[in-house]
Structures are given as structure tokens and as C-alpha cells.
């Protein structure tokens, strides 16, 4: 019986990383890692499988079940493949709460799965950079987190013409609404909920909802005006609000550190209404064909409290997906030609030279710190050169019987086609 | 109602990687990556989720279901979290079979899941280095793969007193058994199966089974003798066997490349009886307290044939788990003190100095390529120093009002306790 053949296609919404793709991924992640380590962020990671409870506690059981790949193991445990990193990192902080050295500056670059319909910029398997600072409640941590996002983009060669950080503060948002609506806390919460949906509903529906909550046309206009204000004008509306003070301190610090040119106040940035508690921000791609929020984050309180009674450790952070980042870098032509970087040497092989002469040659190159390999197998010379070209070797080293007798080799630069005759014992120096 | 608190423990058989653990993991993987890239291996990766069929086709459906985390998605697809990399890489090679440039020298360092009882050296989530060469049928590829395993261990500082590569050849194994048993192909296959179980059953049971298959005491003794022979003696038993010729070519090449001192012929290395077809090897830890096979691999034929009709691309490779590797390195004291490597500077902070003086100072250090961070928040000086010590900073830079006025800073080396007064504009040079 003939075995039915298996499909070569990866599972829907996931990717195979062939060497060329992987080189790009390593370049992406290498830049991130170096940038964050240089500013003293520490990398961490957690397991791919977590208890489903972790996500149910944050998002509700129904949503958690709908958005994750989840199943029950043979011990009856409900598990999910992690769809995000935040519950894992909160669990880890809670697990060593008393031993850790605060403030924590942590990051990870991990893969995760979301059960959703694959579309541009959204896949079922993706990698995400997560940056968080735990245990510092003031603007310095907000600044450090926003700076890390800017630094990562700058490390790729981006500049202020390509991206912009839009910043708001959830406490300020609530206080400004309350100051204008002039209702009790409960009333202004209801108004906030409508304002949160402002861009998702028609203008008519928005005004009707606001009027129903008792707001006058003048009050609605004053809220509209907030979207056009800079941070000084906006915070002047309720200068005694904690949120206004936080915003002012953050923008002063952005100014003082030369980061103001990348940043703008934006009353329209709200993010998860029940989740974020202070500074919130989103990073926008400024390219005309792709003008949209790429990623964002902000300050959230006390996720650790899900694990440890009466614990209170606030955090501020963001998550940036690899697909979004790659789209941004491609749009702005920031991906270099990774195929043709550095020296990579193929030593070709002939029948009339003993094998050990070749292996010794490769060893001498590698001992000198060079990237080098011997052609595997015994194909014709032309095939070996084709192999080297297709695999983006920069040079081939040719040592036939004649060369061996004279103690020299030929070195061919595959880019320039230049050929040199080099004494065998000066070969490593030739590449230095 | 009080929310029940969630567990802080990671799922059974998985690990949290706190920054210290992650630093170790990055060091492990960095060594591997550098070693393999220096010899022109290319990194790849595939998705965590694959069709369950992939594993069922290789190991049978029952075993595949038992050993993997598997479930059905909402589209009715049977999925498994990958328990190994080989089916994925075979699928990837099959998917671009006509476009790829052979021989392929590929590796990956990926996490995978196996559903088994966690025990020493075995976890449910682990990382595995997979190295494979596809499309070269001769000893050169076997040598290159074995050399890569040796090179990785040497890169960690291991030497020939710590590990040894045991090598056999499955074709030679069959031919030697056939030559001694002197039966037809079917008969010698039955004998091979018994020999494969030699170390798993009692001597009495072994001899009884061999006798039942018609072998004399003298034939049994001749097979026993193979376990004591070196490669020359063993291959002399059936010099015309393809397997014997492959073994001889491989050992000649190991000799010629100076790798013989790490390697030994071992007739007892068989590995999966139905899977491997040529060279097989296992790498042993030589430490008395941990003397056992750490990992192994060999030549297998035509996994690509599971996907593409009439395709035939042979491969040779191995998989090395991170837990085994870590045990080996710890046993042999090969893990360096990663906490205290290089310069990492904390700039401490006082109230009487404007914030932007500090951020400018940190920026100047980072622009000079140094790893530096400003203390976040406004704790007392002593707390800031404690933080630096616990977080393994090498230096603190101290700039209070007096220092600022005089244009100098104090630099304290936390290891030596040495303190220097340095002019502000010479600070980067001080660390150079």
C-alpha cells in the first residue's frame, strides 16, 4: 500500500524560517537585545504552556478560551499556549517577590500563539518583544520604557520622520473628563466609556450618548478641543490632577533627555480602559501608506496581586510584535542586505590532493577566527563554484595538485571576480 | 467575593528563566551559534505547532499521541506541539526541494515539548540543538557533523578527558552479523534484533534467543568479540561490506583531521533500529559520576520521501538537549561566572542635581558604547548602592551638587571598592 504523502505546508498562520528568514530574525532580535542590554535591561523567558487560569483571570474565561490554543492534559489541568507574556511575567515576579531587586528592568523576545484569523500584520504564531519595569511608580520608569522603544527603532536606523510616540495618561484622561463633565465619579466613568468609543461610533451616536449623560453642546466641544491641544494646554485644564502632574513630569523629562522630538501628547490614546492606570502610549508609523499604531503600552497596577494577597507592585511596559516591526522596517528600507556581509570562505576540493591537506587548511582558517568550510562531497569544480555563489560565500580558496606542489593557493573573490595567488602560510593574513 | 489566588509555580516539567538563568541560556546558545556559523552552518526554525500526522508517519499514531501534547483545532485539524525537530526540517526541505542548494548544512536551537514524567535530565519543555547535513551521501558529511559536535563541546572549554564520541555504522552492523550468522537476509535481520536488545536482557535470555535462531556458541562468542575490537580489527571481518568501507573512510578522515583522539569505534552503538542507515554515534560524558551517553545521531535516509513521491535526499545529524548539556558543563566546572563580566555602570542620583544632567551623563556613556543606566526613582544613596551591588553592576558613578559644581564625578569600582575622581568630560575614556 502506498503511504499517502504528507503536506509540506506549515500550519495556517505559522511560518517556516528558512536560513534566509532566520538570518533576518536573528538580525532583528540581535539589535533589540543589544540595545536593551546596553541600557541594563535583563532578559527573561517563561514556558510556552501556562495554566489557562492565568489568562482567564485577566481577560475572563470565555475570551481566554476563544483567543488561545487550550486543552486539558492527562492530569486534568487546563493549559493554554501563551497568547501574551504579561501573565507569565507577573507570575514570575510574584513567585520571587521577596528576593528580587527592584526596580526590575526586564525584557523578553518570545514566541506566542493566538487563535485568530491570519491577516496582514497578524499571524497565529508570532514573536513579541516585551519590555517592563516593575517597582518604580514614578515618571522615571515611564521615561525609561518609552526611551527603550525609541532606542530600538533608532538602532535600526529609523529617525523622527518615520515614527512618533503618542502619549496620554489615564488618570489625566479621567480627571479632565470629570472636570469638564462636572458630575460625580460614577457619572464621569460613564462619560469616559463613551469617549473611549468616540472613534468607533458615528458623530451622531457619540453626541446623542453624551447628551443623554447630561452633557451640553459646550461641554462636548470642550472635550473635542482636548484632542487638538498640546500637553501644556491640556494639563492647564486641571493642574492639580495627579495625572496632569505625571504628564508634565514625563514631558519635562522627555524634553530634558532630547526625546521630545519623537513624542507628542495625544488625548485620543486610551488603550484598555480597565487595564492601564497611568501613562499610556502608542508608537505610530509615519509612512503615508502605513500610518497607524504599531505597538503600545503603559502603566498598569498590581498584576502581581492576582498571585499574592495584598501585594502591590506596579509595572510599566509594552509589547512589540515581530510582524509589525518587520513591516515597518521594510516600508522604510531599513533592512540591510544580510546575504553579503563579511568574509565566508569555501575551500574547493580536487581528487588529486589528499583530504587531510584540505581539512588542515580549513582548520588554519577557522583557528584564525575566519568563517570557512570545505566543500562536502566530490562534485566537479564548476558545481562547487556554483554552490559557493548560491550560498553567498564571499571567497573560494582553490588548491589543486599544482598549487599544493608550489605551496600556494588561489583565492577568488566571488563579488569582484578578482583572483589572487597567495602563499599557503600567509592565507589567514590575506583575509585579515 | 475574594478572587482565589493563582499559583506562581510554572507548569510541571517546564522552567521559568529568570534573568540569571536566561544569561546562562544565552551564553550556552551563543557558543553553539558562533561555533556552527564559523563552520558555515545556517540556522533555521519552524513553528511550534505541526500537524500530528508528521509524528504519526514517523513513529506510529499511538506513540505520537502518547508522547506529544496534541489537540484538535476548531477547524478539525489534529495538531501537536513539536516533540522533536526532524519531521519539521524534513517537511521544510521537501517544501523547497528543487530550490535549495545542496549539500545543506543546517542547524536550529528550538524549544519543544514531550509529554513524559519529568526526571533528572528530562523535562517536558526543553531546548534542543539540531544539526543536519542534507544531500551529501559520503563520509565527508558524517565527519562534518561529528566535528561540529566536538567543536561545540571544545568551545565550552571541554577536552578529550571529559567526553568521547562512540561511532558505529548500521550497514556494517548488519553485514558483520550476517557474516557471522551466515544466514539469509531475513535470518540475519532477526539476529540483529536480538543483538540490539543485548544490553536490555539477561545474558541467559540473550544466549537462548541466539541459540533459537540457530547460532552456535562459537558464533555468539564471535559477535561478543566485536564489542572489544577497534575499527581496523572489526572491519577486517567483512572488508567488502559498504558499511566497513564507510567506517574505514570516516576513521581515516577523523585521523587526518586530528579528531581521532575524541573518537572510538563501538559496536554497541545501534540507536533506532529502523531509522538509521549508515554512520551512528553517541557522545559520552566521561566523568565517573555521570558516565553515560549525552546525545547522539547518525545517517538516515529519505525522510523527505514522506512528503514527496520518489524523492531521495539523505541526511546525517544529531540533536543535543539543553538540560543534558547544562549537566555536563556543570559537572566539569565549565560554566563561568556570568554575573561579573564586563563593565556595567549605574549612575546614582541626588535631589539637588537637575534630572537632565543625569540623563545627559548616561547618554554620553552609552554613546561611547558602554552599558549604563540611571537609577530609577529617588531612594536614598545607600539603597542605590545596594541595588547596584545586588544587580551585579561593576561601577557606580556618583554626581552630587558638589561634583557637578567642580565638573567631576566619583567612580566607584564595586569589586575592588576603589574610588576615583574623574573629570566629567573624561569619564567615557576612564572606562575605555
Structure, explained:
The structure is a homodimer of 432-residue chains. With 432 residues, the first copy, chain A, is α+β, with helices and mostly antiparallel strands. Chain A folds into two domains: 19-176 and 239-331, Bira Bifunctional Protein, Domain 2 (BirA Bifunctional Protein, domain 2, 2-Layer Sandwich); 342-431, Anticodon-binding domain (Rossmann fold). Chain A contains 16 helices and 16 strands. The first copy, chain A, has helices spanning 19-38, 52-59, 61-67, 86-95, 139-155, 170-181, 185-196, 203-212, 217-226, 231-235, 242-256, 322-331, 355-367, 381-390, 401-406, 427-431, and strands at 42-43, 49-51, 70-72, 78-81, 104-113, 125-134, 163-169, 263-265, 276-285, 292-300, 315-321, 344-347, 371-374, 395-398, 408-413, 419-423. In chain A, strands 1-5-6-11-10-9-7-8 form an eight-stranded mixed β-sheet. The first copy, chain A, has a five-stranded mixed β-sheet with strand order 13-12-14-15-16. In chain A, strands 2-4-3 form a three-stranded antiparallel β-sheet. The first copy, chain A, is elongated. At the A-B interface, helix 1, strand 1, strand 2, helix 2 and helix 4 of A face helix 1, strand 1, strand 2, helix 2 and helix 4 of B.
Amino acid at each position: 500500500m502506498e503511504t499517502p504523502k504528507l503536506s509540506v505546508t506549515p500550519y495556517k498562520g505559522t511560518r517556516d524560517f528558512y536560513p534566509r528568514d532566520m538570518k533576518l530574525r536573528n538580525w532583528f532580535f540581535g539589535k533589540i537585545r543589544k540595545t536593551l542590554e546596553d541600557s541594563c535591561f535583563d532578559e527573561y523567558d517563561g514556558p510556552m504552556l501556562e495554566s489557562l487560569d492565568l489568562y482567564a483571570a485577566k481577560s475572563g474565561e470565555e475570551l481566554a478560551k476563544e483567543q488561545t490554543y487550550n486543552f486539558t492534559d492527562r492530569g486534568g489541568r487546563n493549559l493554554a499556549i501563551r497568547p501574551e507574556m504579561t501573565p507569565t511575567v507577573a507570575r514570575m515576579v510574584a513567585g520571587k517577590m521577596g528576593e528580587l531587586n527592584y526596580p526590575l528592568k526586564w525584557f523578553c523576545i518570545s514566541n506566542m500563539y493566538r487563535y485568530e484569523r491570519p491577516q496582514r500584520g497578524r499571524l497565529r504564531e508570532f514573536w513579541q518583544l516585551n519590555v517592563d519595569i516593575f517597582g518604580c511608580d514614578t515618571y522615571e520608569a515611564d521615561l525609561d520604557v518609552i526611551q527603550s522603544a525609541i532606542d530600538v527603532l533608532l538602532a535600526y536606523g529609523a529617525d523622527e520622520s518615520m515614527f512618533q510616540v503618542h502619549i496620554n495618561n489615564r488618570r489625566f484622561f479621567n480627571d479632565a473628563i470629570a472636570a469638564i463633565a462636572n458630575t460625580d465619579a460614577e457619572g464621569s466613568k460613564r462619560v469616559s466609556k463613551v469617549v473611549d468609543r468616540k472613534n468607533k461610533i458615528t458623530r451622531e451616536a457619540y453626541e446623542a450618548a453624551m447628551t443623554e449623560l447630561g452633557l451640553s453642546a459646550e461641554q462636548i466641544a470642550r472635550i473635542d478641543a482636548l484632542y487638538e491641544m498640546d500637553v501644556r494646554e491640556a494639563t492647564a485644564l486641571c493642574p492639580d490632577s495627579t495625572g496632569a502632574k505625571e504628564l508634565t513630569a514625563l514631558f519635562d523629562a522627555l524634553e530634558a533627555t532630547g526625546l521630545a522630538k519623537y513624542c507628542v501628547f495625544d488625548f485620543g490614546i486610551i488603550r484598555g480602559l480597565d487595564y492601564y492606570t497611568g501613562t499610556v502610549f502608542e508608537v505610530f508609523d509615519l509612512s503615508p501608506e502605513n500610518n497607524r499604531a504599531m505597538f503600545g503600552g503603559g502603566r498598569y497596577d498590581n498584576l502581581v496581586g492576582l498571585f499574592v494577597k495584598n501585594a502591590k507592585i506596579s509595572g510599566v511596559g509594552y509589547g512589540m510584535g515581530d510582524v509589525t516591526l518587520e513591516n515597518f522596517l521594510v516600508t522604510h528600507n531599513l533592512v540591510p542586505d544580510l546575504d553579503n556581509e563579511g568574509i565566508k570562505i569555501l575551500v574547493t576540493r580536487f581528487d588529486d590532493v589528499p583530504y587531510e591537506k584540505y581539512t588542515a587548511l580549513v582548520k588554519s582558517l577557522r583557528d584564525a577566527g575566519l568563517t570557512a568550510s570545505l566543500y562536502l562531497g566530490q562534485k566537479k569544480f564548476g558545481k562547487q563554484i556554483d554552490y559557493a555563489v548560491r550560498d553567498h560565500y564571499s571567497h573560494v580558496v582553490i588548491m589543486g595538485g599544482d598549487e599544493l606542489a608550489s605551496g600556494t593557493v588561489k583565492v577568488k573573490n566571488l563579488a569582484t571576480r578578482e583572483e589572487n595567488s597567495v602563499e599557503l602560510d600567509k592565507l589567514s593574513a590575506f583575509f585579515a
